[in-house]
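Dock adenosine monophosphate; give full complex structure.
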Amino acid sequence: MELLNIKNLDLVEKKVFIRCDFNVPMDEFGNISDDRRIRAALSTINFCLDQDCAVILASHLGRPKGQVVEKYSLIPVARRLQQLLKREVTLAGDVVGPDAIEKASKLEKHKILLLENLRFEAGETEDDKELSKKLASMAEFYINDAFGVSHRAHSSVHGITKFFDDKHRAAGFLLQREIQFFGKLMKEPTRPFAAIVGGSKVSGKLEALTNLLPRVDKIFIGGGMAFTFLKQMGYNIGSSLVENDLLDDAQHVMDEAKKLGVKFYLPVDVIAAEKFAADAVSKIVTAQEIPDNWMGLDIGPATVRLYREGLNDVQTVLWNGPMGVYEMEKFARGSSKIAHFVADSYATTVVGGGDTADLVQRVGVDEEMSFISTGGGASLELLEGKILPGVESLIILED
Ligand code: AMP
């Protein structure tokens, strides 16, 4: 899938609207605790500035739900952007109100205007046409570089694209990279290709698992979702997380894997705890011996060894979802060991966004991975084989 390329646009001295994803985590004092998403947007912004453009930036932050909520203002983002770009960044007082419209219309080349939080406007998440039209009216060109939100049909990622033709809209560098990476992974991965799939529930990953099955050589299951499979296989899983309504689906996945010759790995031991708590009493037990009322909160050491053996010869690894409750130190070991192993391997290593990206960063191996997606939900939808609403109109149609 090829996308309209920013490099093919005639941007020189034009006014450009760039939809970014500046939805960064903040601490309780409103300080940005991780600015990777802002830094990831810099190459597209700098490219436009190098073309002598006037640049209008827009993003959402948090969920203000259509209200102006002070703690979701983009003031800290404007400040950080200014530091990183080493240029003045003007923050508009609103999104499409008089201040934003006036500042956008007077914006000169090399100047940067950041609109206030798009979700201060209720229409943003409703894909409201009027809002899209107002946003589009500010600029001659539209660039989408907000991969993390491209799976949402929102005004600034979906509706707005209708107001620009193919010579006036394109994907930014970040969006291009994400789509290309996942595209190659799904179409022509270097084999053997393994997927490590974890996280809390089967339901959240069922579509991705189904879509991955015909493409991968091996699947390694971890996290809470493993217990639905183990239960279906007849094990006693105590009070571990389980989705009883998905037992048949779990069986279907295992049957399909067998049919397709995909090696399907499940945990052989777990760290079981008496309760879901950081200070819970815990012990290592085999998958066959989870005591009643105990819950599995991480994969055990034998599983780590087994998964390492299985991963030894793979050339491509896709990892989506932690192996255990990694937020609690006691149940983070399985994820951490797998993270180190994957990071040290010579395979191409691709990490889905969200929790898994957070996990590899905590473990300190993020630099070692080949690619870490900036979007959890969006990358999952790509793995499910979907076309993202924010990407749809940026695809170059083949004759
Ligand atoms: P997801 O959003 O589905 O990728 O799930 C991520 C969450 O799964 C993390 O917050 C983990 O704490 C949680 N998780 C991982 N393993 C388990 C487990 N064995 N039991 C309960 N929750 C888990």
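Observed: Residues 199-201, 204, 223-224, 241, 296-297, 321-322, 324-325, 327, 355 surround adenosine monophosphate (CB under 6 Å).
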